[in-house]
Amino acid sequence: MRCRVCREKAAIRIRRHNAAFCREHLIEHLRRQVARAIEDYQMFAGSERLLLGVSGGKDSLALWDILTDLGYRVDGVYLHLGIGDYSSRSKACSEEFARRRGLELGIVDLPEDYGFSVPDAARATQRSPCSACGLSKRYILNEAAVCGGYDVLVMGHNLDDEAATLFGNVVNWNIEYLARQRPVLPATGNGFVRKVKPLIRVAERETAAYAVLRGIEYEVEECPMVAGNTLNRIKEWLTTVEQDSPGLKQQFLFGFLERAADGFEAVAEADLRACEHCGRPTTAEVCAFCRLRRRSVEAPVGERGDG
Amino acid sequence: MRCRVCREKAAIRIRRHNAAFCREHLIEHLRRQVARAIEDYQMFAGSERLLLGVSGGKDSLALWDILTDLGYRVDGVYLHLGIGDYSSRSKACSEEFARRRGLELGIVDLPEDYGFSVPDAARATQRSPCSACGLSKRYILNEAAVCGGYDVLVMGHNLDDEAATLFGNVVNWNIEYLARQRPVLPATGNGFVRKVKPLIRVAERETAAYAVLRGIEYEVEECPMVAGNTLNRIKEWLTTVEQDSPGLKQQFLFGFLERAADGFEAVAEADLRACEHCGRPTTAEVCAFCRLRRRSVEAPVGERGDG
Predict the structure, then answer these.
(1) Are B62 and B215 spatial neighbours (Cβ–Cβ below 8 Å)?
(2) What are the strands, taking DSSP E only, across chain B?
(3) Taking CB atoms and an 8 Å cut-off, how many pairs form between chains A and B?
(4) d(CA B189, CA B191)
(5) A214 phi/psi in degrees, rounded to 5
(6) Would the N or C end of chain A have less CB density within 10 A of its end CB?
(7) Interchain proximity A170–B251, CB inside 8 Å
(8) What is the pTM of this model?
(9) B245/B243 Cα distance (integer angstroms)
(10) Furthest-apart CA atoms within chain A: distance in Å
């Protein structure tokens, strides 16, 4: 197996592109894929202020590395979720990466700053931890971007993440979510900054290979709360299917974006108003995050939630 | 495991309905599912002339049985595809079923009446046999309905068939096919009769169980040309996924029909004109079936096709 570019011994084969790459040209290939996504979807300009959601995993650190190499100035924000050793290790990876490269990393601490952890929220609401975590991340990372005066919140979701989310939304035909599944969500003008996903053309194993080849130390363990998570199961199914049909995930996701997504956008946007508690846009009196926070902070430790 | 209705020993468990049924009540259950599909989608009235596409397999024979029991008068049409023993056996099953119940069965013979078999067509076009077969079936069964003065063409596609087709169309985001994936396709007024699928609420293993319990002799073997067929592979994947999440296929299909299908219908219908050869509606000068026929009949036996 030889590198498509230089014919040297390849480090990785990418079957959906019917190509293999050596170390150097894999790095170049991923940089080009990210640059192309930014350009294709007009994600941002170099003059804009960019904030990256950093988890300490391979995707966000690889993306930070690539964007920096492409010449963008990107600050990071790490959200400490209060998930024991997993959070400590991923925070340390994020801080170490930023320190070595002289990059700015802000830290938000869910237990300290908001009074509850993801395990607290899962217990209090009896919802899956992933649901409480996703809701908190969306809210707090946007909050960090708004308060820091950033133009754009950059997220590290990759092709596998987006294909799995799309699949989940298609299986349920969740029209509202389908309407919002885009590589770029424009700023709303009333509290949400623009949100972009530059890794949309890059698969999970490619960011992992990139991180390894670049010597990036990332948190390798999966979050311990993710077991049985629906999105993870969908990812496993799709990966099995992809083995039979290389390119299927990409075809599924980009076919949607090119031919179907506009149709779902026709769905009327719900009327948004200001959350009575925090002032951010919501369809309810109090936004979902403030409700989650209230229940998670109020629930005494060990309580199984109020249903 | 006890029957949901009479608490007798159950013959089959249907996990997506969280129910089990004895012989008698499974039969009643399937009859009710078919009656409900006919009513929900206003498929046809008892006064209309109905023609059923009969393959000799479990689905079409079970459906013929159920519709007859529900009091509908339904004639059948069997299309002989020229696939060796498989075609001979499935024809014999169809004829035997009709004879025993005193039902009308017309026979169309692809090799005799049209001059080519499905294997001929696959060879001549170098397309998959399933593609040539599907195209021929759609054309010829409609032709039989039109020429026989029928109002409705009834097809035996079940829940698994429709979910797999939908999945295939979604993975490719084939908007035109998605717009036409309905349990009822209205007559076009220029050559297509109404086409309906009353088994849409019934899974494959349920029609199999029904056929066995009713003593219906059907062709048990799968078509020998189907190996590697994409739709079959999708069916297998979906069945694996369904085992983890009972009801997923039904939720996927009916979620589409209830919440998404209308959006795809907005896609402009292509301009249809009469095929220069047979006069049926087509978007091209000569319709796809007449092109397939011309190539399949012209190609000498053994020729690998003209690409």
Answers:
(1) no
(2) 12-14, 19-21, 50-54, 74-80, 105-109, 152-154, 184-185, 194-196, 273-274, 281-282
(3) 48
(4) 6
(5) -90, 0
(6) C
(7) no
(8) 0.87
(9) 6
(10) 62
